[in-house]
Design a protein that fits this description.
Helices cover about 25% and strands about 25% of the residues. The chain is an alpha+beta fold. The protein folds into 2 domains: about 170 residues, no CATH class; about 210 residues, no CATH class. Strands 4, 7, 8, 9, 10, 11, 12 and 13 form an 8-stranded mixed sheet that branches. Strands 1-2-3-14 form a 4-stranded antiparallel sheet, covered by helices on one side. The chain is elongated, with a radius of gyration of 30 Å. The relative contact order is 0.15.
Length: about 400
């Protein structure tokens, strides 16, 4: 081989190396440009999915509010419209959206846990919001609860600029977002004062023998009532032993709430024993004169074990009461509770008695009177105040008639 032939061969090899290097360089540049764009698009798609899930969860918060208050419940179509509007505004594609409980567990149309593949999960837009079948969500154990969230599967197809030279013409971006409404779930640590009492959902008084009498008509908002404490049956007020301190710890619990978030509806055990009509509890209740706190209403009572697992007793009216509703005494009963707000009377509020409007026991029956059909001989005391929307409770922004329920992304 002469020198000129060797030079031509070396030039050819150098050209091949340069071509390969240029191709590698272009591919690296392309991956940088297209990869950076794909990353930005992935974030935008995730944000769009998050917005869609949040919009659906807000609607579901209002659905939960209407379990407590008389209002028009949003429909599946309303939730779908909220999700679709957010999807459109964020220029993403909606693959599917599903209903979940407050833990983000997808639910079936029957309101129970869906399988992992979501093949039997309730789709947003399919015509039904899964019903509350009585469970209390427990994220640690996987027990499902009422419909409180929306899982959104988002998608966006992103065209490439330079990596098409190696056959990659688009990136297919898939995202998952789950948002839940925390309506009725607010802890003392979140600034939510709490009265450890469950009131009946209907106006209830005491007859002459001390038994509770249900009028069949619900309490009204912003109306001052005297809530008589009846001597017999579960009574028309259930004291909740949230810190397991019994009657001795009740005054402290009233003044210094330690409650964890209470998701409604759910079952709560009343373990208070002993006399709740005493000077310590009087003083604790009087300290709340004029304040607005969270409280509970109860729809059912259960005299035995309650079970929120499925499929055990998950239909109306028992909703997990294994031994029969409306049984047991006031100190040995579980209450199926809903959340709301309560303002205790004060001496300066129009329509409230003097000197303390919030609470009185039998030593001062003059404040209790014969309100709501009660009889002094059938009472052991009374609580005086008015129910208010949760939106009026300091520290708790749950509820109200508009789209104001608190929501949060959990996945």
């Amino acid at each position: 081989m002469n020198p000129f032939e060797r030079l031509r061969e070396q030039n050819g090899q150098a050209l091949a190396i340069v071509a390969l290097a240029m191709t590698t360089l272009l591919l690296a540049i392309g991956l940088t440009i297209d990869g950076g764009n794909a990353f930005a698009q992935q974030r935008a798609t995730q944000n769009g999915g998050d917005a869609a899930a949040l919009a659906g969860a807000v609607k579901l918060g209002n659905y939960a509010a209407c379990v407590v208050w008389t209002c028009a419940k949003p429909t599946d179509a309303d939730v779908k419209a909220a999700v679709d509007s957010a999807v459109t505004q964020n220029a993403i594609t909606l693959n599917n959206a599903y209903y979940t409980d407050v833990c983000g567990q997808p639910l079936t149309n029957a309101g129970v846990k869906a399988n992992a593949s979501l093949s039997n999960a309730a789709k947003v837009g399919a015509g039904i919001i899964p019903p509350d079948v009585g469970g209390t969500a427990n994220c640690a154990t996987g027990t499902t609860g009422p419909t409180r969230g929306v899982l959104v599967q988002g998608h966006r197809s992103v065209g490439t600029f330079m990596v098409g030279m190696v056959g990659i013409n688009s990136w297919e971006i898939q995202t998952l977002s789950t948002a839940v409404s925390t309506y009725g779930a607010c802890a003392a640590s979140q600034g939510c004062g709490f009265l450890p009492i469950a009131f009946p959902v209907n106006i209830t008084g005491c007859d002459g023998s001390g038994k509770a009498v249900d009028s069949g008509s619900p309490w009204q908002l912003h109306t001052i009532y005297v809530f008589p404490l009846c001597k017999k049956d579960p009574g028309n007020v259930g004291w909740l032993d949230l810190n397991n301190g019994g009657q001795a710890g009740l005054a402290s619990q009233i003044l210094h709430p330690s409650n964890s978030p209470i998701v409604s509806p759910s079952w709560w055990k009343d373990g208070i024993t002993g006399n709740t009509n005493n000077p310590a509890i009087d003083a604790a209740m009087w300290a709340l004169d004029g304040q607005t706190v969270r409280a509970l209403q109860y729809t059912h009572t259960c005299g035995g074990a309650t079970n929120s697992s499925f499929p055990t007793i998950n239909t109306a009216p028992n909703y997990g009461c294994a031994s029969g509703l409306n049984a047991g005494s006031g100190s040995n009963v579980s209450y199926r509770v809903l959340s709301l707000g309560f303002t205790l009377c004060s001496a300066t509020m129009p329509g409230c008695p003097q000197p303390h409007g919030s609470y009185t026991h039998a030593s001062n029956k003059a404040q209790c009177g014969n309100a709501n059909g009660g009889d002094n001989n059938g009472m052991v005391g009374c609580i005086i105040g008015t129910f208010v929307p949760l939106s009026e409770v300091p520290g708790a922004t749950e509820g109200g008639s508009g789209d104001t329920s608190p929501v949060q992304l959990i996945k």
